[in-house]
Amino acid sequence: MSPYETLPFPSKGTNTDTLPVSLEDYGITSNGFLPEEPPLERLPHPYYAPWESVVESLATSLAEHTLRHRVDHLPILSTEHLSTKPEWQRACVVLGFLAHAYIWGGETAAEILPPSITLPLLTVSSHLGIPPVATYACVNLWNFRTTATTLTHLDALQAQHTFTGTQDESWFYMVSVAMEAQGAYIIPVMLHALSQAAAKPSQKQHLITVANALNELTACITKLGVLLARMDEKCNPHVFYHRIRPFLAGSKNMAAAGLPRGVFYDQTGSGAGAGAGEWRQLRGGSNGQSSLIQFLDVVLGVEHAAQGNSNPDAVGELLAVGEEEEKEGGGLSEEQVAVREAFQTATRALAEFRNMHLQMVARYIIIPSRQANGTRGMNLATASSRLNGSSSTEKGQAAPASPGELTGTGGTALLPFLKQSRDETFQAGQLKVR
């Protein structure tokens, strides 16, 4: 489908509205950023049976300390038998889990990723356009099964694969899946409203459409918060911090965890000769990679300083027009006031959602980080939470942690980053118009 074609807009009471973009071009389905159908639970071609055999018993192999031995003896498989998009996504899930299990599944971190994982993972990640690590898409979006007809039914969701084999880990991933599904309907609603705002910002009916959409957005964010609050039901903070979180860490800023140079992606066997490959420092999977949350930021015009300034959004432009009209003495119309109030309410709702996330970080990371682990061997969770700081910051990236400061799985200062994101969301609702 051409990106210039329009898709039917599923609004209530009408089938005539359309969207001026192709959602398909942005990987958006009726389930939002989740796939249209549940992910494959196994690659169909028997050629990939060796991968499937190892990932099927991943938690057991990690518990028995045999995972690295099994991966070291895997054959180097090509990607020539992958054809459909679900197959490529399934391969990414399998290889992403095996890669992180190999790196973090021992007494110390493994600095070298063997070619049996490196070579196919590099090809798969390149094909999908994502980093060769266990991303948010890998452990959440493409890693679930359900017994219900709707993906918003959290209790019917289950992770296909986990590192620990615990209900806690599955629940942690599935809360995110349910939230992605819950937020799916708001994507076309807001795109339609933004197109209305950009087309004729002063037209009464368009203003009503925008105000209604923003009110619906507030309701949607509230529903997301209800799902997030259910994390405590089946995910124990101590289990999350000490057993699950270590496997989600990347290789960037992980010197304290045993990866001063990151991970060497060994490409021996690629035809480039023995010892071929390169050191990579990549950020680990994080809920911050959720396209849904980033979409909410975009439609509300929330600007995060670490990402640079963005262009004003259509709603912001509409509000700016209203400000100009008010200055000229005409005052704001009833519809313009409704848009302003709905916009401010929506930004407050998103900021409060981020505040809820901060409170959860306190329960699941800060408090457990101060408690004894109770397990033998190197505590990679603690090591990867307190990293050596750096005097420089990459352009467009959040600042690295200072010595002794808690960090996220991506290696950035955790609390300062989250607080800044929350505060910037509150600021977006203050109507900084020209």
From TrEMBL:
Record carries keyword Metal-binding: yes
GO CC terms: cytoplasm
Keyword terms of this UniProt record: Heme, Iron, Metal-binding
Region feature (Disordered): 382-412
One function term, GO molecular function aspect: indoleamine 2,3-dioxygenase activity
Gene Ontology biological process: 'de novo' NAD+ biosynthetic process from L-tryptophan; L-tryptophan catabolic process to kynurenine
Annotated signal sequence range: none
Family in the record: Belongs to the indoleamine 2,3-dioxygenase family.
Protein name: Indoleamine 2,3-dioxygenase
Species of provenance: Chaetomidium leptoderma
